[in-house]
Amino acid sequence: xxxxxxxxxxxxxxxxxxxxxxxxxxxxxxxxxxxxDELDIExxxxxxxFIICDILFEGIAPLEFVAxxxxxxxxxxxxxxxxxxxxxxxxxxxxxxxxxxxFPIPFDLEHIETMMEAYE
Length: 120
What we know:
Blueprint: E1 5-9, H1 13-25, E2 29-33, H2 41-45, E3 47-53, H3 62-72, E4 74-82, H4 87-94, E5 99-104, H5 109-119
């Protein structure tokens, strides 16, 4: 059986560790990084079942970041977990093709877990 995989991109180290633990508890292999600068060639050629990421990174607008992730990393589902809770940004991102979920912080880990189960 093939191992499910997830890429986690979070600048906030505490959030990174919390989400990494959730992903690993679901039986996924997990690559956890704090920015796109940490991607390597294997990351760009892998096909992840989930990418779970923030959208607040210095020097890039949230919508641009999502478009960039979708363009450079193969994946099945993209989930946003962010401190940016602005409804208009959430609506614009959820309207983008390929975005499976948007969770503003604070959030309930069970909601993310339920969403992951739905796509397994």
